[in-house]
Amino acid sequence: MSRFALINIFMALIVITLGALTRLLDAGLGCPDWPVCYGHPFPVSNEQAMAFTQWQFDSGKAWMEMIHRYVASLLGLSILIQAFLIWPRYLGAARWLAVFLCGWVVLQGLFGMWTVTLRLWPPVVSAHLLGGAITIGLQFLIWRIIKTNTEPKWKSIWSAFAVVIFLQMALGAWTSSHYAGLACPDFPTCQGRMWVEITSEVLHSPMVDGDEYLGGIGSNQQRMGIQWLHRLGALGVVLMFIFLAIKQSTQRRALTLCFTLLSIQIVLGILNAVLLLPLSLALLHNTFAMLLWMSAIHGMTTPELEEENDEIAQELLA
Fold first, then answer.
1. Has 65 been annotated as catalytic?
2. Which sequence spans correspond to the domains of the chain?
3. Catalytic residue among 65, 201, 212, 315
4. For labeling, which of 28, 59, 162, 272 is most exposed (least CB within 10 Å)?
5. What's the CA gap between 98 and 83, in Å, rounded?
6. Is the pLDDT score of 162 beyond 60?
């Protein structure tokens, strides 16, 4: 079961990466219908897609979208099998998380459908992106429980750190869904400004009928505010990590892992801004956000005295 759960983690990471790639390649509406693509289970020729007069057929984007859908469906099936295997073998959090994850994957599929049918409406796109983070987070938690035979520490500073990271990912999803990643092409300033005023405009997301959200429709000021809010969120994560390191100083390995991933993530964020969001770095920024999120969950299932006991054992052996 530990290996099966680990495979699901890697599958979830692949699905999330494919979703990010679909987003970055502007292929979110590569298939303007759901669950099929231009009325067919696989991308068709341009002639067969002529009935969709509002949409211009792009074979590459259509295949990108459908590959993402099919791999996500495979992950959903694997998670369902996992729940059937875990239920008679485990009690406690592992059993109930496995069952809950089955329902969550169905909801995540609906978010994927609404992303298409509501034409990339930012609230739905953001929910879909965060749904992927919740999926891999729950799957990672199931694996850790099985691997360590330890119930999660729900009411701990590690849980608080995980919540702060999740909120920062929400800001990142909002930034991505509004195409605000290039709103501030400099660092630490934003278009030469040392401070950007954040107004209620950052939450403005009217629904549209066509594909206007493909590329974003917000004003420059709105996008700057969204990007600036995301940067402030990153600062909040750093401060929370410092507090975590002070309070959990005995968990050196877990803290070192978090510090390494957080440092890489910050560097990737800066490079994405100053290098104008290259595809490879944008994908890495998304991937390392998931790894940082899982590292916080890892801390929730790590015994506090684990590393102290390891050091004592080493001293005795010496």
1. yes
2. 1-151, 152-318
3. 65
4. 59
5. 5
6. yes
